[in-house]
Queue: 2 jobs
Job 1
Amino acid sequence: MQRLRLKIHIQGAVQGVGFRPYIWRLATQLNLTGWVRNTSIGVFIEAEGEDAALEKFLTLIPVEKPPMSRIYSLKHFYLDPLGYEDFQIDKSSKASEATAWMLPDIATCPDCLAELFDPQNQRYLYPFINCTHCGPRFSIIEALPYDRHNTSMKIFNMCPDCQAEYEAPTNRRFHAQPNACPVCGPNVELWDATGNVKHRDVVAIQQTVQFIREGFIIALKGLGGFHLIVDATSDDAVSRLRQKKAREEKPFAIMAPDLKSIDRYCEFSKQERGLLESPESPIVLLQKKNCVADLSSSIAPNNPMLGIMLPYTPLHHILLRLLESPIVATSGNLADETICIDNSEALSRLGDIADYFLVHNRPIVHHLDDSIVRIMADRPVILRRARGYAPLPVMLNHDVTPCVAVGGHLKNTIAVAKGRHVYISQHIGDLETENSITTLQHTLDDFTAIYKVDSQRVAHDAHPDYASTRYALSRDGEKHAIQHHIAHVYSCLADNELEPPALGVAWDGTGYGEDGTIWGGEFFLLDQQRVRRLAHVRTFPLVGGEQAIKQPFRSAIGLLYEMAPDAFQRYHDMPPFQQLAKAENRTLEKMLEKRINTVRTSSAGRLFDAVASLLDIQHINYYEGQAPMLLEFAAWKDMSGPKIYPCCIDFSPANAAMWSLNWQPMIESILLDIKNNVKASVIAAAFHNTLVHLVLTVAKHSGQKRIVLSGGTFQNKYLVEKTVATLSAAGFDVYRHQQVPPNDGGIALGQIAAINHL
Ligand code: ZN
Ligand code: ZN
Ligand code: FE
């Protein structure tokens, strides 16, 4: 047996998750001496002892690590022993280069929850209870390393009791940076709409519960921003919120007191239950039960799904335990603006909506919306990446030259890259307002400063009019325009740590194409350092440009017109044409004829829009993707078995340069089915099946084995599950998004991956 000194360097999510106390306990158990230290480039450990014990130490570290920690790299080497006498936890030391990470916020842990509702505990009903296993992180971080003086908790001085917990290595609150208690920590206040304090502390929460019961709208300051809250069982309250927020049909998310309550409203699997109860605690999209008991029908009108979450902060836990009933909890903002994070800002921005404000004095540094997740093909797919997930980096499998990306236009996120890591921001939102554009700029400045990334290489969308593009072009440095759908497929490649070659399928709403058309139903061949557009959905005219995105009947009309120039006469009694007055019909026909304000598109999203309108399912998108989503829901209702429409791709040598997916035979069959009164659900399912078959056909001709699926259309569970099953059965390796959304929330990652490949 030999005595040795082992030096270890760990990088990953290892700060503020109870990692050092864990190492201390493990080392002490194994009779090792030495130290563990947090630095801004990760955790360093030196351990001395018998070689067998050190070997065991090394094996156990990743096995028994704290639940919220993630180890991305663990390097070690042996040295001669120095004769350490005991094992110590060193205070954080500053290092010149910041590569440690900002960690996501974590839902209240079971231990804290038990204390919160224990009348004997000094933190009984204290809404800011937390420990190293739970509580705020990213939302309060101002700089790295993650230490109290670098968080918004620095304005609160710990009382002797809290300080003692903070300093005791065996305590659950050892170096819990947001540690606080009623004596020394933040507190809540209930304000009226003019900012007058009505109540404080627990009474403020009790009164809020009363106001919710009476049907008032409450603006509640949570973890990463304000929620607007109403009683989810009150039709009046929910309708009033809808009307005040000017939100027509977009579903609201709800927060339910517990799983038992969720069980009354929704079906959920073991996997979905796991997600609901996870430390990330996202909104999970669940299937509504046939009878949703007492829930207001205006929460998710005409929608078989419900976005639902459990309480994730002590404040939410107290509120819902007292209320014993679900609430609507929607982001505290107006339409496309960023969620409100500041008390006085909330009064001015939400003053016209909310009746009362439940606020607190722990400043929010980074805004965070609730994340949204849906299980597809047995795996969680993140549809909105924010609280709980952001800003964990995605690891690339090679080093990159430092660069930044400004993302797309809708569901915007930004990213900065350095070494092998791409740090992706939380969901910023649609860049439709000054407010959200400013947030993009601040977030980019913030990330480049915190991660010390040289931003001389800037990637942006190829669309010249996106606010993100304009902002990128206004900055100094090298600019790289990346076509939207190329960014999508590279995003999925990076998300799976893959290298080309692969076939990239980008099915999406719309994106600026390289040939003057609007792209969105694209297949790319990805080679080392090269990308080639291999195939696309046959183009059709979109009349009215941007308007067509909001009005699916325009896509249907364009499709029919492309098939038959006399469509306006031949199909005049079809639902899409019924959406227009006679005069408008003539205008549209003229515009199509003369190609005025008419662009051609190969968008898969618009194809879904068109079919939804043809089937009289939805003619207006009140929110992004509504018509395609309703078409998906219709397909789920089909019980008739697999039906596929004819559809053709011309693979003859004359067309080798670019294959076009000709939807005409399919649309003709759909028209025939409509005429024959075939059920909409049967047609919707057959439409989906046909698209899956098209992907399979292109895949077979592409010569590639690996297929990556990306773009907003792959938020469609029916499409995803069928595509994955069909391609896998045919022997292909199918890759989908894992860490970032398939929608435009993943564009920033794709832009970074693309400029480092092309
Ligand atoms: Zn805890
Ligand atoms: Zn205290
Ligand atoms: Fe997109």
Note: Residues 109, 111-112, 130-131, 133-134 surround zinc ion (ligand 1) (CB under 6 Å).
Job 2
Amino acid sequence: MKTLKRIGILTGGGDCPGLNAVIRAVAKATMNGGGEVVGIEDGYLGLIENRLRVLTNQDVSGILTAGGTILGSCNKANPAKYAMPDGDGKWVLRDVRDQVVRHFNAAGLDAMVVIGGDGTMTGAADLIARGLNIVGVPKTIDNDLWATEITFGHDTAVNTASDALDKVHTTASSHHRVMVVELMGRYAGWIALHAGLASGADVILIPEIPFDLDKVAAKCLYRRQVGKGFTIIAVGEGAVPAGGKQFVSHIDETSPDPIRLGGVGKFVSDELEKRTGLESRAIVLGHIQRGGTPTPHDRILATEFGYQAFKLLSAGQFGRMVVQQQGRIDSVPITEVAGKVRTVPIDDILIQVARAIGTSFGDVEP
Ligand code: F6P
């Protein structure tokens, strides 16, 4: 074990509950070992713009239960493809990796911990190729990061999403309605699957299983026929009608990953009302899923991931990301993770469980 004198730390991508718990764990373990921690503001943007500050004990104390990130985050600043105005009202992507390496070296950093999702790990892989010592910690409410079976933040998001699904039950039941709740998750259906199962949603629509609206409508009508006048539907934002396309809410030209999903919930609700004659409403839960205090599960996982990152740094094992595999904490090369998405396998045990108890995925007759 060697003591690294100066460690940089940043949080990249969309914020999620548990980021502060990781910062706290890395910083406390490093400081207790005699090292210094430098906070990089707003993800890679802070390295591009040279916004760094030494973190004190006080900075990282009392933040375990706080959502968000004390460092700020940014889901647009990939150093290899950084969007800059070209002067003609358009955005062009520039490679600013040399600038990042310069600022990293000027700050006297021995190594850096990057806490983020796929975009952050892809950015890290590019910087590792330029010789920077980096260790990754996986975060995202979407739970879609390659090589790890869980990311912190997901449990809290699932709690929030199931709370919403539980709460719409009363209106659905009192007004005999179909209630569609659109959940986040991008191209993976983990949030919709887990929250849908936790709340007993009657229909769960996820990107991995294209849905047939006639089959979803048949499920709503079948429920009415057997005395259940309402239907609760959990739909992941990336869910697609069979033969159709994903619903895009807007394109962010300043982002290297410009597509923002959204709109499938309203589409499903409107179509079901037309096809069944049942009154339907759609709710978009949105960024509420990224907020709030992390659950104890996420606080523990984030703290353990932070400590493991510290251990990798101390052992000089750079270029690796902390993961959990089959319940055990381990690590894999960051290059193995970059650019990949971990979607729900269509034979996932929870899909089998849900089907067995009568939950529809919109692909078979009720
Ligand atoms: O990756 C986290 C996430 O919240 C996704 O679930 C969602 O699609 C996306 O980020 C939203 O991004 P933004 O905060 O840019 O709207």
Note: The two ends are 59 Å apart (CA to CA).
